[in-house]
Amino acid sequence: MSLAVDRSRIESLVRNAIRQSGLASPAPSIASAGQQPLGWVDGKPNLRVSISARHCHLTDEHVEILFGRGSVLEPDKDLYQDGFYAAKQTVMVVGPRKRMLPSVRVLGPTRGASQVELALTDSISLGINAPVRHSGKIDGTPGCVLVGPAGSVQLEQGVIRAARHVHMNFADAEFYGVSNGDMMQLSVRSPDCSVSFEDVLVRADKAAKLEVHIDTDEGNACNLDAATSVELKKSGCACQH
């Protein structure tokens, strides 16, 4: 009677034997392990630069207050990052002196703390001095009032101008020679409007696809819609990718 041995068990035994013999070679990188990493095209990262327009993130509690008891976010359009979406719901954001933005899109899924992300021109329009912060870093930031069809929420803090950042997976990070928390530089070439953006924060996650997020003001400044090329590189690095 033949004995069936699990393939992964055999591979594990072989790896252990090689390590113990001292003949082990360096482990292959994620990018060369046989399967193409998430988001890669033709064996290399596929860089995407997206404009992140004004939006808000809500807690489950605030969803119910704003849209009614038992309400949940209803996905309307999937975002590029898997598992994230623009919801059907929008809210009115009200600042000092009754200045308001009438229809600000809610993004899902819900979070542990509600947060409103604006561009500089948005914050000026509302009369809110919103600081540049990385998402989730809302301590000490100004608040606002959110108004929905079923109620309103007074946020004591959470209004920010989202700092530019790049989502990437670990294979992308290996390709560029960066780690989570590092800073990179994005160069956008477009007719008469080429711009280089510094301080692009690396947000590395195993499930992410390579995507830079800039706000509407930054997208307009570089005329992103007419861009002929985009380049991303590690800050202080002379190499081009």
Folded structure, characterized:
There is one protein chain. Helix content is 18%, strand content 33%. It has helices at residues 7-21, 60-67, 120-126, 170-176, 216-221; strands at 48-51, 55-57, 75-78, 85-94, 100-108, 115-118, 132-133, 144-147, 152-155, 159-162, 165-168, 183-189, 195-204, 211-214, 229-234. Strands 2, 3, 4, 5, 6, 7, 8, 9 and 10 form a nine-stranded mixed beta sheet that branches. A hairpin with a 4-residue loop joins strand 8 (144-147) and strand 9 (152-155). The longest helix is centred in the N-terminal third of the chain and has 15 residues, at 7-21. The radius of gyration is 22 Å and the shape is globular. The model is unreliable at 1-5 and 22-28 (pLDDT under 50).
Spell out the key features of this protein.
241 residues; alpha/beta; nine-stranded mixed β-sheet; disordered N terminus
